[in-house]
Design brief:
Methyltransferase required for the conversion of demethylmenaquinol (DMKH2) to menaquinol (MKH2) and the conversion of 2-polyprenyl-6-methoxy-1,4-benzoquinol (DDMQH2) to 2-polyprenyl-3-methyl-6-methoxy-1,4-benzoquinol (DMQH2). The chain is an alpha/beta fold. The chain is built from 9 helices and 9 strands. The chain has a domain of 191 residues: Vaccinia Virus protein VP39 (Rossmann fold).
Length: 317
C-alpha cells in the first residue's frame, strides 16, 4: 500500500470542454453486452390513459434484481413498510436527489471522519498491484480512485452503482483525475449480472449494502464474482457499542441530518431516510453471520468510532 491514501479528496466536476480521453478497450469482466434503455433519472413517457398525478412520478430504469424469494412481499424503506418491488425505485429517487451534494454532505454529516473510515478500510483491503477490483455502490468514487492508483497499469478497477446519477458523478471525478484503468458499469448488487464468475481479487461495497433489498442475494453474488482466495470488504454504518453514545447518536441522526439536508441539499426527507436506513441495517454479528451463510470464511469485523461504522471482511477459500 502507498502512504498517500490521504489523497481521498473532493474532486471538481467534469469540464465539458476538456479534451476527450482515448477510447478504452472493452472491459474484460463483462459476459454480455449491457442492456440499452432510457437513462436512469430521465422521466419515462407514461401510457396516455394514466392520470395526471401519476405522470409526475419519476421512473428509473434500473438493472434487474435477484427475485430469489429471500424477501417477502413487503420490506422496509427506512421505518416505513412498503411493497418489496417498490424499494429499488424509492432508493433510486433518494440518491438521484442527493447525488450532486453527496460528497459535501458526507463531510458535514461526519465532520470529515468518513475519510478516515475509508482510509482504514483501504488499508484492510490488502489491495496490490496488478489486481482486479470491483467497487460496488461506488458512487462518487472515493475508494475506486485510490484502488486505481494502487493496482497500477497492470491492474483494473470497476466502479459500479445501481444509480446512474451517482455513477455519473464518480465517472466525471475519476476521468478528471486521469484514472484510465477504471470501468464504470450500472449493476444491481443483488445479481452483479454483467460480471463473470471468479473475476475479481477484491470486492468492496462502501455505505451501500444497507440500501440493498435482498442483502443475502447480494452477498451470494459477491461470493460468485470473487476469485478463489479473494476477499470481500464491507464498510457500512452499524450499531454503536455503548448505549449512552447510541442515544446521543440517535438524537444527532434524526435532528441534525434532516436539518442539514434541508439547508444544503434542499431535501430533508432523503436524509431522514438515510438515518432510518442505518437503524434498520443488521448489526455487526448479524451481518457476519450473513456473510458466513453466503460462503465466506474467516469473517471478522472492526468497529470504528464506537461502532457507528464497522468494516467487515470475508474470504472466498
Amino acid at each position: 500500500m502507498s502512504n498517500d491514501n490521504q489523497n481521498i479528496e473532493n474532486q471538481t466536476t467534469s469540464n465539458p470542454n476538456s479534451t476527450a480521453l482515448p477510447e478504452k478497450k472493452p472491459s474484460p469482466f463483462l459476459t454480455e453486452q449491457l442492456p440499452q434503455g432510457t437513462a436512469q433519472g430521465q422521466q419515462q413517457t407514461l401510457a396516455q390513459n394514466s392520470t395526471a398525478s401519476n405522470q409526475n412520478i419519476p421512473h428509473y430504469n434500473l438493472p434487474r434484481g435477484a427475485n430469489t424469494g429471500n424477501v417477502g412481499e413487503t420490506t422496509h424503506f427506512g421505518f416505513k413498510t412498503i411493497n418489496t418491488e417498490e424499494k429499488a425505485q424509492k432508493v433510486a429517487e433518494v440518491f438521484h436527489s442527493v447525488a450532486s451534494k453527496y460528497d459535501l454532505m458526507n463531510d458535514l454529516m461526519s465532520l470529515g471522519i468518513h475519510r478516515l473510515w475509508k482510509r482504514y478500510a483501504i488499508h484492510l483491503s490488502g489491495v496490490r498491484r496488478g489486481q482486479q477490483v470491483l467497487d460496488i455502490a461506488g458512487g462518487t468514487g472515493d475508494l475506486a480512485k485510490v484502488f486505481s492508483r494502487e493496482v497500477g497499469e497492470t491492474g483494473h478497477v470497476v466502479l459500479s452503482d445501481i444509480n446512474e446519477s451517482m455513477l455519473n458523478v464518480g465517472r466525471d471525478r475519476l476521468l478528471d483525475a486521469g484514472c484510465t484503468n477504471v470501468d464504470f458499469v450500472l449493476a444491481n448488487a443483488e445479481t452483479l449480472e454483467p460480471f463473470a464468475d471468479n473475476s475479481f481479487d477484491l470486492v468492496t461495497i462502501s455505505f451501500g449494502l444497507r440500501n440493498v433489498t435482498d442483502k443475502d442475494a447480494a452477498l451470494q453474488a459477491m461470493f460468485r464474482v470473487l476469485k478463489p482466495g479473494g476477499r470481500l470488504l464491507i464498510l457500512e454504518f452499524s450499531k454503536p457499542v455503548f448505549e449512552p453514545f447510541s442515544k446521543l447518536y440517535d438524537l444527532y441522526s434524526f435532528t441534525a441530518l434532516p436539518l442539514m439536508g434541508k439547508i444544503i441539499a434542499n431535501d430533508s426527507e432523503s436524509y431522514r431516510y438515510l438515518a432510518e436506513s442505518i437503524r434498520m441495517h443488521p448489526d455487526q454479528r448479524t451481518l457476519k453471520g450473513m456473510m458466513e451463510n453466503a460462503g465466506f470464511k474467516n469473517c471478522d469485523y472492526h468497529n470504528l468510532t464506537g461502532g457507528i461504522v464497522a468494516v467487515h471482511r470475508g474470504f472466498k477459500l
